[in-house]
Each structure stands twice: as structure tokens, then as C-alpha cells.
Write a structure and sequence with these properties.
single chain, 311 residues, alpha/beta
Length: 311
């Protein structure tokens, strides 16, 4: 099978943690309900590729995300692979209660850098959402859990347009101040470009939130996700969110298309000589398998290019 020639670039990390979001952020945007048996096999297949962090599901109310209404059954039946982390998304204390009852050891909350998206996604203002998150983070830490904070609309908002960097930094600092162990910067509608990414990460560092506390979450709406990822790596970020086969979007922002495909990310990282621990052919086979179950072709360029080689 063809693989990229490894040619490192100076100033990049030696290894990168891939935060796989396909089973949660990918499947939540499907128009049909994926059976829990398929989800379980998807998780097992992803773990077998060498991915070390796989976001398993969400405890958002089923009325809002019916595609993930089977979270309890999924986690009850899941047999965790050794050494693999399975974080889940929780919106509030009720979601945290459900996660704790199932023995979850890592959770994520999700905020917005803009008021419009906060109201559409959480039915709250930014201030109200942060007030809702505070007891979630506090209780999670009391229980010994890691907490990640997602911050959406960091590079542009479909309703508000351009989002000032200072505005993103302000909300990001408040999320970190609540106690989030890591902050994932989301380009929810995929409008970011490399210079914007670099400038935001520099501004966050100047405000006391260094790249060691950050992850990046890019959507590929305008084909910029890999370029933006490289800019983030050059700025010192070592955790990148991606979705197997490019699954995903955002049910509350219709202009948000698929996430950065994990296969495309792995191809780039391996070409740069950066370790990921991921078996790319196995990952491509997994995404082809899921694409068959969803009844459509994977949007990942690497999946399409390698499909015949791994069959």
C-alpha cells in the first residue's frame, strides 16, 4: 500500500495525540439512527487501529440528539480496550450524574465563544452556560475525573460573522478558570485559515493559556482543516481532534460540514515523521466498513485513495 514519504519539518512535535470524535460528533449528525451494535463494533474497530482516545457518546437529552439516546446501553455493553480512553460529553449536572453512574472517568463540556450559538445550542447566554458548567467541573474533579472544555465558533459564526480573537480569549480563559484540564478550540463552520489559527493560539498564550492546555477541532468546509492543523502544530499544540472517515458536522449550525478526517490527518502526520500509534490501513478499512453501513461514500480523500489497496 502506498504511504507518505517521511520528511520532517523543523519545529513540530515528535508525537501527536489524536482525539477521535467519530462515534460521538460524527454519528450525532446522522439523519438516521445507527444501531447500538454497529456503534459498539465501530468503537472496537477504532480501538484496534491504535487510537488511544475515542470519544464514545454524549449524555445530551435524547430530545436534542436522538442519535445518541442509547448512551447508557452503549457504555454498559462496551468492553474497553486496554489503554484506551473513552471520554463522553455531558451538558450539565444531570448528564454528569448519568456518566458517573456508568463509571465514566473522563468527561467534556461544550461552550460557545458567541452569544447566538450559545443560545441556539444550549438555550443560554454565554454567562449562563458558564454558570451551568461550574458545578459540573467541580464535581467531576471531586470524583477524580478529567474534564475537557469544547469552545465552539472560535473562528467565525454563521449568524454573527467574524468573531474577534479577544472575545474568544475571554471565554477561553473563563473555561480554563473553571478547571478544565484541556480546551479544544473549535472551527465549527470551517472558516478558519492558518494565520488566524496562529494568531489565536499566540493570543491565548499571552493570556496565560499555553498550547500545552489546548487541542484543535477543525471542520473541513472550505478545505482548510489540514493547513490549519499544521499551523496549530507549529504553534505547539499536540492534541488534534478528528473523525474517522470525516464523519460529522453540527446539528445546530447547518453550515458546518464534516470534521477533519482522521485518515487525512494521519497521512499528513506520518509524512511529517510524527508518531501517532495509528495503523492507517486498519483505520481506512474501518471507515469503509462504516461508510457501507451509512450507505454512502466516505468524504475522506485518503479513504477514497486507499480503498482499493486495503480491500
Amino acid at each position: 500500500m502506498l504511504s507518505p514519504q517521511r520528511v520532517p519539518m523543523p519545529g513540530l512535535p515528535m508525537s501527536v495525540t489524536i482525539w477521535e470524535v467519530g462515534p460521538r460528533d460524527g454519528l450525532q449528525n446522522e439523519s438516521t439512527i445507527v444501531p447500538v451494535d454497529v456503534k459498539l463494533e465501530f468503537l472496537d474497530r477504532l480501538a484496534a487501529t491504535g487510537l488511544g482516545v475515542i470519544e464514545a457518546t454524549s449524555f445530551v437529552h435524547p430530545r436534542w440528539v436522538p442519535q445518541l439516546a442509547d448512551a447508557e446501553e452503549l457504555l454498559t455493553r462496551l468492553a474497553p480496550a486496554p489503554g484506551v480512553r473513552y471520554p463522553v460529553l455531558v451538558p450539565n449536572e444531570r448528564g454528569l450524574d448519568r456518566a458517573l453512574a456508568l463509571g465514566v472517568r473522563e468527561v467534556a463540556i461544550f461552550g460557545s465563544a458567541t452569544e447566538t450559538f450559545a443560545k441556539r445550542n444550549l438555550n443560554r447566554t454565554v454567562d449562563e452556560s458558564l454558570a451551568m458548567f461550574e458545578p459540573v467541573v467541580r464535581r467531576a474533579h471531586t470524583e477524580g475525573l478529567r474534564v475537557r472544555g469544547y469552545l465552539s465558533m472560535c473562528f467565525g459564526d454563521p449568524w454573527e460573522g467574524e468573531v474577534p480573537i479577544a472575545q474568544v480569549v475571554s471565554v477561553a480563559r473563563r473555561l480554563v478558570g473553571l478547571g478544565c484540564d484541556q480546551l479544544s478550540l473549535g472551527d465549527t463552520i470551517g472558516v478558519g485559515t492558518p494565520g488566524h489559527v496562529s494568531a489565536l493560539i499566540r493570543a491565548l498564550a499571552d493570556a496565560g493559556v499555553g498550547p500545552d492546555r489546548l487541542a484543535v477541532h477543525f471542520h473541513d468546509t472550505y478545505g482548510q482543516a489540514l493547513a490549519n492543523t499544521l499551523a496549530a502544530l507549529q504553534a505547539g499544540v499536540t492534541t488534534v481532534d478528528s473523525s474517522a472517515g470525516g464523519l460529522g458536522g453540527c446539528p445546530y449550525a447547518k453550515s458546518a460540514t464534516g470534521n477533519l478526517a482522521t485518515e487525512d490527518l494521519v497521512w499528513q502526520l506520518h509524512g511529517l515523521g510524527i508518531e501517532t500509534g495509528v495503523d492507517l490501513p486498519a483505520l481506512v478499512r474501518t471507515s469503509l466498513w462504516m461508510a457501507q453501513r451509512l450507505g454512502r461514500q466516505s468524504p475522506s480523500a485518503v479513504v477514497r485513495a486507499l480503498a482499493a489497496d486495503v480491500a
